Amino acid sequence: MKVIIRSLVGFLVFVTDVLYRDRPYQRFYVLETVARVPYFAYLSVLHLYETFGWWRKSDWLKVHFAETWNELHHLLIMESLGGDRYWVDRFLAQHLAIAYYWIVVPLYMLLPKYAYYMMELIEQHAYHTYDTYLNTHEETLKMQPAPQIAINYYRDGDLYMFDEVQTNGQNEFRRPKIDTLYDVFINVRDDECEHVKTMIACQHPEAQLTFKSPHNDVSLPTLSV
């Protein structure tokens, strides 16, 4: 199963690499539109289980919702940079998202570990994509101001939801510097790393018993990517 998932993710990465080779903000817009979908799928299935009385684990619901909230703000940042300017990019992103949702829902119902593994790979790809972009365009990004939506999310707003996606295992939450566009992309990249850690934690055999919200007394295990 992991071979199939790696092949599928590899194909999707190849397609986006070809289509968006020289259009980074449009690529990030598509990436962030699709990246929200698995968390919607997880929440849909978990709420269904809760309705039937099969599952009641508020920590999972809270963390996955915080992940959708985090990805939403990544998407809003990319929209503020013009990533959604063209109809064709919006069309592609939205239809990929619909298709992806209906892939993840049955996979999560039947094989939740592999649904988390698929998202781990996608978030790893997102991390490396942003990291490469930062290394390539550092000077240019440092000369541009941070979008207001990024300032509101990372610095001036209610940081509870931002804290909820951090899985450092030390109850010490990140407080980002947000002065330039470079700072924004640093934090988007680091968010993707936190998503990877959470996806890894959710795959542990004992995860249903030990998985905890970062705001609870017992934190997620410290993991490295």
What is the radius of gyration? 17 Å
Helix percent band: over 70%
What is the succession of H and E elements? HHHHHHHHHHH
Largest sheet, in brief, is:
none
CATH architecture: Up-down Bundle
Write the layout of secondary structure elements.
Elements: H1 2-19, H2 24-35, H3 37-51, H4 58-80, H5 87-110, H6 112-136, H7 138-142, H8 148-156, H9 160-164, H10 181-202, H11 207-210
Short structural description:
The protein has eleven helices and no strands.
Please tell me about this protein's structure.
By secondary structure, this protein is mostly helical. The chain has one domain (2-210): Ferritin (Up-down Bundle). It is built from 11 helices and no strands. It has helices at residues 2-19, 24-35, 37-51, 58-80, 87-110, 112-136, 138-142, 148-156, 160-164, 181-202, 207-210. α1 (2-19) runs parallel beside α6 and α3 packs parallel to α5 (87-110). The protein is globular, with a radius of gyration of 17 Å. The chain starts with a helix and ends in a 15-residue tail after the last helix. Mean pLDDT is 88; it is low at 218-225.
